[in-house]
Amino acid sequence: IGEWTLPGARFPLEMARDADLGSNSLLTYQLTSDPSFSLSVKQKPGGKKQPELVLERALDREKLSSFELVLTAVDGGEPARSGTVLIRINVTDANDNPPVFSKSLYEARVAENLPVGSPVLQVRATDADVGSNGRLSYSFSNVPDDVLSLFSIESESGEIRTVGPLDFEEEKKYVFGLEATDGGGLTDHCEVQIDITDENDNAPEIAILSLSSPVPEDAAVGTVVALLNVNDPDSGENGQSYELSGDEHFSLAVQAGPGGDQRPELVLAKALDREEAAFHELVLRAMDGGDPARTGTARIRVTVVDANDNAPVFSQAEYTVRVPEDVPVGSTLLTVTATDADEGLNGQVKYS
Question: What are phi and psi of 346, to 5 degrees?
Fold first, then answer.
């Protein structure tokens, strides 16, 4: 901090992080007592608290060239837990102009399929000083690990580039802080907001919510055989169209789900006959409205259960046998046979 810095100047400090939840993660900050400095806590969007070091009175490097303060973060648990960080303040001389960003907020909008290594935006700060006191370097300021895994900043130019693949379905927006530091250690801060735009990189997903199988062969036409759900993680007006192949005995009726998802129903369109086909193999395809379109596929097997819709049939309509009049009692005169196309008990034949 330069000795010319006016009282009331604020310097953002690193925010503490607590992996617990609820009251166990509520943090309060304390600073060791020093007449030259005090601690202020700024409420940031989202409920986070940003500790700031406030200069209370003018500094004199010739009297005292450095300070060491301890910042303590205490959580709200029982018992409370705390963490500390040492703040070393060097009083610098002659560097009387801090860096100034051209904007307090830089915004960019990029597609999720942006290749790794692509430029996103460039920030710029100026410093009225000359020489090393006016030479600036750019860096991230207290950003989470997921931002560091996706973006980098060139320290001299302030250009931000991608270093990892973006995914709109995973995160739609990134907001993080940047810091410009001059050769004398003075800094300015800004925020960067990068909005990720959606691309049609996901195929529709078909889920079978319920399937009535086996289906009685005497089920009425119009019976709902299966309830399906089709969801596409992509955004926008990428509505689905459908194609059912495999059998004319079934058709699709499309209903709207509670979240706007489309829910096709597999409906019996033609009377079944187990003796003709004991099962039916169907293929459902869902195509989204993207360009190019993407397709999701589901295979459905419907088994047909027997109904007693076939009568027994004798192998002959009339049997004739010649029997001698002296044939012994109990002799077998003739064997007749009848068959039934049904299965199980429905196909067991009794004679009388």
Answer: -65, -20
